[in-house]
What does this fold into?
Amino acid sequence: MRISNEQMLQLDIDILVPAALQNSINEENAPSIRAKVILEGANCPTTSEADAILAEKGTIVVPDILANAGGVVVSYFEWLQNLQSVKWEEDKVNQRLENTMVRAFREVWNMAEKANTSLRLAAYMVALERIVTASRLRGVTF
It folds into this structure.
């Protein structure tokens, strides 16, 4: 049995992972989405309007900036290894990746709870906080 993309978005499921198209979740289909959690695998799969609708419904949206950051983190690890002319074992890479991603998720989750906001906005808040801290440590004033 084949189903359309719209039918798939409306399934009664726990977790939905939009992983292909930008703006695939929008203000037209967001009211029909029944998933409890949306884990964004694609870049920008949810429009701002849909984000607001999902928040109002109580749907947890793990934003792309957090959910699909693993590849970027591992690329950073590769860069570090190249700089140091070393090669980490796969287990070490996986453990460091897990530590980094779990810590990042916890920081974003805690910020969302503290500020009573979405995970997307909390991720931006954590990022801006880090930029301000780094700038101050470097002597930059605002």
